[in-house]
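User: For a benchmark we're assembling, each entry needs the component sequences followed by a predicted structure for the full assembly. Here are entry 17's components. Please fill in the structure.
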Amino acid sequence: MDYGLRSIGYGERLLPKSDITLCEQFVLIGSGMIWNIYFAFIALLFGFLFSIVLALGKNSTYIIFNKPARIFIFIFRGSPLFIQFFFAYDLFIILPKLGIDIDLGFITVTVETRWLTKAWLGALIVLFFNTSAYAAEIFYGALRAVPSKDIEAADSFGFSGVKKFKRIIWPTMLRLAWPSYTNEAIFLFHATTLVFFTGFPAWQQRGDAIYYASYFADKTFNPFVPYPIVGLYFILFTLVIIGIFSIINKRLNKHLLPNERSKLKVRLNLIR
Amino acid sequence: MFEYCADPKSLEGFAWFSCYVTTPKHMSFYGSFLVVMCLLSLAAPLAMLFGFIGAIASRSSKILVRFFGKGYLAMIRGIPDIVFFLFIPIALDQAFEYLRHKILCPEVMEPIRQGNDFVVCTAAKLPLSAAGEWVHDLYGFSLALLAFGFVFGAFTGNVLFGAMAAVPKSQLETGEAFGFSPMQVFRRILIPQMWIYALPGLSNLWMILIKATPLLFLLGIEDIVYWARELGGIKTGVYDYPHPDWRAWYFGVLMIFYLLLTYVSQIVLDRLSNKLSTGQATLAGKTI
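Assistant: Structure for entry 17:
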C-alpha cells in the first residue's frame, strides 16, 4: 500500500479523498500509529530517568531540591495536559525564531528554538515533562514505602550512602512502583492522541492515528468505521506495553517467594 | 464598559488595559469559565448515574444484563478516551437524526447513507435549521455532556463496582439473617457502607474530570480554550485593541485557573476523606 509510511512523509502525497476503502483506512491509521509510538517511547525513556531525579528531589530534606521538585510535580499534575500543550506551543512561538545566544563567558552557545514549534520536538517536550511529573509522584510514593528495616539492615552492614541506594533502595523502589508505572506508561501512550488536536500543526498532513481517523470521519460522515479502527490499534499496542512491562516486572520480583510477588494489576486509561 | 473606553486608540497604560479586559468578547471569555463549571456540576451527577447503573448491571444475576454492564465498564479500558469524545457526539447525533427521520418522514425512500453523505429529511434535522443559535449551542453542549457522562460513567462504574465488592460479605449476610429482602440489603446495608470504599476512587475521578474539561474544545463548544485562542491571537491595527500574539498569556491564565481548581478540590476532598474515615475499619489510603 502507498500509505504505509505516509505519516512520516513517504509514499503517496495526497490523502484519499473519495471512494475511501476500508483497507486505506486501516493502513493510513496504522501509519499514524508510528507517531503515537514515537512520542510514547521517547517520552517514557527520558521521562523515566528524569522522574527518578524528581522523586529523589521531592524526598530530599534540602529545600533547594525539595521545593523545585514539588512545584514542578504540582504544576504538571495539577493542570490538564491539553492546556499544557497549548501553553507550550504558544510559548515556543513567541520565542525568537532564530535561536537564543547564551553567553557562557568563554564560548557562546546558540540554542535552536526553531524546532520547538514542530510537533516532533515541542509536543515531545511537553509529554516528557508531563510523564516525568506523574511518574515522579509514583516513584516518590514507592520511595516512602521502602521498608525501614531494609535500610537499617544496610546501615548495620556499614553500606555507604551510594551503595545503600544502589543495592537496597533503588531495586526495592522500582519493584514497588512498577505496577503503577505500567499504568502510567499506558496513560501516556493514550495521551499522545492529544498532540495534533492542540496547537501543534500536522505538517503536510503527517499526523498520528487519531488525526487520520478524524480526517476519515469528516470525509465519510461515518464515525463507525475509523474510530473503532483506532480503538483496535490502541488495544493491540496497549497489550504489547503490558507484555513488555510484565516481563520486567517478573524480573524485578524474581528473588521473592511467589506469594510475596507484586502482581501487575492493570487499571487502564484515565485522562490527565 | 467604562465611559472613557469610547476611543480605545487614545488610551495608554492601565486605562487601556482596564478597557481591554472588559470588552464584550472578554465578557464571553469570563462566561465560558461558567460553562466549564456548569459542565463539571452536570457531568459529575450524570456520570454517577451512568456508573451506578453500570455497576449494578454488572452485579446482576441475569446473564444478559451482566454482560452489558461488564461490557460497558470494560469498554473504556484500553482505548483512549479522546476516541470516545470524538465518536460519541457524532454517533449520538446521527442516531437521533436517524430515528427522527424514520418517524417523521417515513415516505422518503432514499437510503440515508449516500456514499459519503449522511442525508436525512429537513424535518428530521437536529437542531432544526430554523432554530436560533442558542439552540445549536445548547444541543452541542448536551451532546458533549452526554459524552462526558458516558465516558466518566464507565470510570465511575469501575470504582463503584470495586467499592460494592469491598463491603464485607458478613455485613450483607447479617442483613439476610435478619430477614431483609435483597432490595433491603442493597438499600440499607450495601449502599450506605460502600461510599467510604468508593471515596478515594471518586475523588481521583473528580480531579480527572476537572482536567478533562478542556476537551470541550474538541467537541466544538465555545469554551475557555476557544476564547483563549480567539482573544490571544495577533490583533492588527484594524482592531480596537491591537496587540501581538498573547495566546501564551491567555493559556497561562487557564493553567492558573486549573491549578487553583485542583488545589482547592484536593484540600476539600482530603478533609472529606478524613471526616468519613474516622471510626471506619479501613486503611485510610486505600485506593481503587
